[in-house]
Amino acid sequence: MDMAIRIRGVTKRFGPTLANDNIDLDIRQGEIHAILGENGAGKSTLVNILYGLYRPDAGSITVGGQPARIDSPADAASLGIQMVHQHFMLAVPFTVAENLVIGHEPRRLGVLLDRRRSEEIVRSLSQRYGLDVDPRAHVEDLSVGARQRVEILKALYRDARILILDEPTAVLTPPEIVELFRIMQRLKEEGKTVIFITHKLREVMSTADRLTVLRHGRLVGTHDVAQLNEDMLVEMMVGRLVDAEATGEARQGGQIVLRVRGLRAPGHQSGVEALRGVDLDIREGEIMGIAGVEGNGQLELVEALVGLRPVTAGEMQLDGVSIVGRSPREILGRGLVCIHEDRQARGVIGEFTVEENLILGEQHKPPLKRGFFMDRQAIHGRTRALIEGFDIIPPRSDIQARYLSGGNQQKLVVAREMTARPLRLLIASQPTRGLDVGATEFIHRKLRELRDRGTAVLLVSADLDEVRLLSSRLAVMFKGEVIADRPKGEYRDAELGALMLRGRQPVELASERM
Amino acid sequence: MAGAEEARPNAGNWLRRALNSPFLGSLASFLLAIGAAALLISLAGFDAGEGYSAMLRGIFGSRMSLSDVLARSTPLLLTGLAVAVPLRAGLFNVGAEGQLLLGALLAAVVGMLPGIPAWLHIPLTLGLGSLAGALFGMVPAYLKARFRAHEVITTIMLNYIVTLLTGYLVNYPLHPPDEMLPATEIIAASAQLPRLVRGSQLTIGLFVAIACAFVLHLLLQRSVMGYEIRAVGLNAEAAEAKGIRRTRVWLLAMAIGGAMSGLAGATEVSGVQLRFLEGFSPGYGFAGIAVALMGYANPLGVILAAHVLGAIRTGALTMDRTTSIPADFVTVIQGLILVFLSTPGLLRLLIEKRSPATGSLPIEDLTS
Question: Which residues in chain A touch residue B6, judged by CB atoms under 8 angstroms apart?
């Protein structure tokens, strides 16, 4: 069988970290090849080398049988390699057609953009590959899934023969994921080679032909998917079997920590009300899970609770004291602490060291503060304890946080927030998004420990399995309201899905949504 | 950043790492600017060698020339700090010139008051000059917090206001009747800074400026306030989510910046000009931007950068006097330094002859 890409002995080092250690890998022509591994295993590094973003320190790459030197994305493009990044590279005010042809525009009279021709290109490509998008739609109006389709079309327009998808499912809703897999199969039928990065096992089992597992920068192995089962895969990825059992039930009847009544707040786009009368109670020692399709007000609820979003009506009480109109600082001071869903924007300060990140929010309190200055001894002590206690890798306090893998950045945030004092209610918003099996399990365990110590936890997650696994109570948010709030056991499986997707009155709303 | 334990650096790696170091990056930018300027001088039909040797004579030629360098570096050091500290909070203070003028004006007015003993008069003059700069510096921070007005625009506009206002004041209300120049009266002897070298303009202002740099370095690196300034500068949203009050940090950083500019104006008035003369500042506030960037917004780096630029500016005067190359050429060198500094990719390209995948403005790398 012809090899699309042949990688031999590729090594890449970042400072003291060996991101790729002597990797050998063959990608066959026309296959769907999954690359798996925990966070920090070196998956992104490897594909970034293929795409010309990084240069390997050693090793060779052959593309289509020819030795290749890939020094830039332009080199990669000339070899037919295109990549769809996890964070999309689209000009959002532009239309789909405009985004597609950027850099290679069809022209009229030499200077003018040929709009009609651009739209034709989109239509013919999307028909051929079964990617449904409106060429005239503005990207800012599109869902995440549709934006991803635009990115894929863009790659196809640039004559991609080998398409790299970097964690393509991380941002998608379940139906969008199904759609993406259908597209990937179609691409394969058209003779394209697809490489995709993921750490979700089920996705690999259902779509890939072959898979490669990386661990700690090394190649664990490449296998035909047909010859594996999920357990074998987990073991290859983490080197041990993960205990996925749910354990421990909540204490019942704790005191109410947070009480929300009739909360209303505007959304991100002006003129749209994101919260339309939310009622919620959270008690000591329980994990309250919020289930719901993303974009039904969960983000706005979290922002309102922590003081980052002004509310227009309603009441929020923490331990009986109103926190409406209070600043983030005052709310933190009362013990409402949050792991925000956008780690890059609100969690870590990339250019700060691990140590500086770990003290964020504590810097103005004793014992870290001593008079006008900060107490370096106390800071070192706290940092050492947290790095050890939360297994942050590499275990160094002096490197900038941006050099940590996503999973370790998240551990850093979790470590900081869980040890904040006072701590009455912890909000964990998408706490394990984009994390691997090991890191996810670690964070789940920490959340349970916190609950067992009597802290109230509000868990917001798009991952229904996660919410079901951890929560003692489950609330469903739909279109800015909590439409159900019961102990976890009182939901039937199908009922939960129906509430999330269609809300109160399944039939009518379902048609309205379309 | 990881440094020493890099196990196997292949050829050229040390060079790339060196270019990522702020000090060497600034040094390389400086040398390249000098080289490029020489090329421009030659192209303009002058003798670059002659020009530069005149410049060197103007810098190192005598004890007097060296003290002139230090005297000229003093206001640059302070305006460099005035730009550097707000930069660490994520604000670009283009208003150092205006803050300097206001500080200078207040120092002149306070300096004219009779009958105050020197031990009190000098601190009072410098202190009130700084205070004027600080309060004025907070205006753009407030406008940004309250109305989202971009500080680059507002500081530029405020520069015009102060330039014209002080110009009016020294031409009319504060203008002594028998004076030809648009200037205030000479300040009282008790308000004049002691000179360090007889016949030179070098005063204890230099020590004040260097002390400020060390204090600000300590403040940024070790104090809670400095930590909060840096946090807001690097990721304001994350800082705010963890309870740091962005507006307060902005006001504070601009107050510090304004105080430094005000102090620069006050030391110029009480040490060099001895009165407020319209147009006395040859753009010290704007040169402060170059100083701050060249010093990577680090107060200690600013000390170094200020002296380098102070030296060139002093040497340029000798060059102007003894050759046919105009002193304005300094502005060209200063501009070239900024061009090379803000294009590290270009720098690498010139040295490595290969394009790296990424490059960024020093403004984004301020803390590395």
Answer: 15-16
